[in-house]
Design a protein that fits this description.
The protein has helices at residues 6-9, 19-24, 38-47, 63-66, 89-95, 131-155, 187-197, 265-272, 285-291; strands at 2-3, 30-31, 52-54, 73-77, 85-86, 100-107, 117-124, 170-171, 204-208, 211-218, 233-237, 240-244, 249-256, 263-264. It is of the alpha+beta class and 303 residues long. Strands 9, 10, 11, 12, 13 and 14 form a 6-stranded antiparallel sheet that branches. A 4-stranded mixed sheet has the order 3-4-6-7.
Length: 303
């Protein structure tokens, strides 16, 4: 097994440490973050692999390393390709309110998610799903596809169909600064925003007095919640903190400071002095477009 070193892996959202399981199974563990460097390619050459399975890798693999395994490199992408090529497909699907995502097994080529498709599984997104719960199902689907197709992959006879380069879309990269909540959007859109960016990702946040307040969980809105000026705290109670949106409001149930773990919203807000009448800062239109992937990052806005 080849995996990034601990210091590199710690900087990746949702990264799993499989070294213990690999060693327990007698699988050698090699540490490398960039398989495109000559030393890494030589290392893989020495293993003389029939197949390479790539899961959760954050760098595109170049022709040099892709040509090493006799029967190619198989990877996974958490969408129904060619739809949603690129970064963070599950996060984008949830924050856009899409009801379905998927997992695609593909034979990797030098492009970004452009290789031949081996198999696909549709994965529904429920209103109370988060990026974490959906990615769990994506992972299970990937494992099942690998078990099904591994014998054929090892001898080069797995099914494959080419993607049409003119179809699909390419998702923008997401950065932590793009998590800012624009409360001047419908309640359902704010709820989708929070659940798309929650743990294990950097999280959604609002701004109070120029400081970030992390919003980790909201309750799915029903459509009959009270409203008010977007971003205004309407109520604080045992169930959480109710914040107004453009249409209605959302109930925040878990929140915290920037360097704190998620906490019950009622407890944290009392300690932080968040009370009815407090109002989160409005988000400038240019920033709102940027975080939605509809415009460039405004000058001076942190990534």
């Amino acid at each position: 097994m080849i995996t990034p070193p601990d210091e590199d892996r710690r900087g990746l959202s949702g990264a799993a440490d499989l070294t213990g399981a690999a060693r327990a199974a007698g699988v050698p563990v090699l540490y490398e973050s960039n398989l495109n460097v000559p030393a890494a390619t030589e290392m893989v050459h020495a293993l003389d692999p029939d197949l390479m399975v790539v899961v959760g890798w954050t760098r595109l693999l170049g022709p040099g390393i892709l040509s090493v395994p006799r029967n190619g490199c198989v990877g996974f992408h958490a969408s129904l390709l060619p739809r949603h090529r690129g970064r963070a497909p599950v996060n984008w699907a949830i924050l856009r309110g899409e009801p379905v995502t998927g997992n695609t097994m593909l034979l990797l080529d030098p492009g970004a998610d452009t290789g031949d498709i081996v198999d696909q599984v549709r994965i529904p997104i429920a209103p109370d799903d988060t990026c974490g719960t959906v990615y769990d199902r994506v992972a299970r689907a990937g494992a099942a596809m690998l078990r099904t197709h591994l014998p054929a992959l090892l001898v080069g006879t797995a099914p494959r169909r080419a993607q049409n380069p003119s179809e699909g879309d390419v998702l923008p990269r997401r950065t932590p600064g793009m998590g800012v909540i624009d409360w001047d959007r419908p309640a359902c859109a704010v709820h989708n925003w929070v659940r798309a960016l929650t743990t294990p990702y950097p999280g959604a946040f609002g701004l109070l007095g120029g400081e970030r307040v992390m919003v980790w969980r909201t309750r799915p809105p029903t459509g009959d919640e009270p409203g008010g000026p977007p971003g205004a705290v309407l109520a604080v109670g045992p169930e959480g903190v109710r914040v107004a949106t453009r249409e209605g409001s959302v109930l925040v149930t878990a929140m915290g400071g920037p360097d704190e773990p998620p906490q019950p919203a009622a407890d944290w807000s009392c300690r932080a002095g968040v009370r009815p009448g407090t109002r989160f800062a409005a988000v400038p239109p240019a920033v709102s477009r940027w975080v939605l992937g509809e415009g460039p990052r405004p000058e001076g806005v942190a990534r």
